[in-house]
Design brief:
SUMF_dom; Sulfatase-modifying factor 1; 292 residues; 3 helices
Length: 292
């Protein structure tokens, strides 16, 4: 069953920020036409229905082409994906390789490798989906992926504050989104008890009634990433469809932050925040939602 759509009125809004990271600048006025967006990210159950109906094989499940990995022994070219592993203690936060590892067998069915499962987590956002996987699901659903401007408009829900809910990250002490609680990347006390992804709708909706626009998982957009906003970039419409395996040289803009965002490392659980990810990447903290 597809996620229900929430109709948004469209209009002009101020996109971006100059208060946090340089890639969020410049602040500029963007206008979007009315559109509808899924209330929450696509879940494991919904992605499983798509796979069952189509037989689709995700990028993380496909054999690797030796021509793309010169010098790597062929017996090491096995399907897999990037998996987050908490470190034993404090580490240099400039070296992401200390907590990200390539895990053979990791895919949407087995997010952390062969021995992991999504059993009991069907209402969590699907992860380990590369950009072509998200685009394929959207096409099957008769929908499409949002542009960065559409996504930010939906996340802001009329707000002009740092966070979608105001300028206080925890108003009245309330945790508003699934983000890292503790010291990154070694101590996580859990967000309302959840370490990693949480069931969609665990945290309060924004003013448009949308769930998990902030935190839980980063979400793919159709906008090609640039080091700063391109003010001449169309606010609507889609880029050409990605190749079936994605182009590792092309980065898309991600939005929303995830359960791995922490103030000392990734203060990106805000509507204006953005990140770069190559089209062929699949990880334990990236998902998506569709628009219509």
């Amino acid at each position: 069953m597809l996620t229900d759509l929430v109709d948004l009125p469209g209009g002009a809004f101020r996109m971006g920020s100059i208060d946090f990271y340089p890639e969020e600048a410049p602040v500029h006025t963007v206008s979007v036409a009315p559109f509808a967006i899924e209330r929450h990210p696509v879940t494991n159950a919904q992605f499983a229905e798509f796979v069952s109906d189509t037989g689709y094989v995700t990028v993380a499940e496909r054999a690797l082409d030796p021509a793309d990995f010169p010098g790597v022994p062929e017996d090491e070219l096995v399907p897999g994906a990037l998996v987050f592993r908490a470190t034993a203690g404090p580490v240099n936060l400039r070296d992401w390789r200390q907590w990200w590892t390539w895990e053979p067998g990791a895919c949407w069915r087995h997010p952390f490798g062969h021995d992991s499962t999504i059993e009991g987590r069907l209402d969590h956002p699907v992860v380990q989906v590369a950009y072509p996987d998200a685009a394929a699901y959207a096409a099957w659903a008769g929908r499409r992926l949002p542009t960065e401007a559409q996504w930010e408009y939906a996340a802001r829900a009329g707000s002009t504050t740092a966070y979608a809910w105001g300028d206080d990250v925890r108003p009245d002490g309330q945790l508003m989104a699934n983000t890292w609680q503790g010291r990154f990347p070694y101590l996580n006390d859990g967000a309302r008890g959840w370490v990693g992804t949480s069931p969609v709708g665990t945290f309060p909706p924004n003013a448009f009634g949308l769930l998990d626009m902030i935190g839980n998982v980063w979400e793919w957009t159709t906008t090609r990433y640039a080091r700063q906003h391109r003010v001449d970039q169309p606010a609507e419409g889609c880029c050409p469809p990605p190749s079936p395996s994605g182009d590792p040289s092309v980065n898309q803009a991600l939005k929303g932050g995830s359960h791995l965002c922490a103030p000392e490392y990734c203060h990106r659980y805000r509507p204006a925040a953005r990140s770069s990810q190559s089209q062929d990447s699949a990880t334990t903290h990236i998902g998506f939602r569709c628009i219509a």
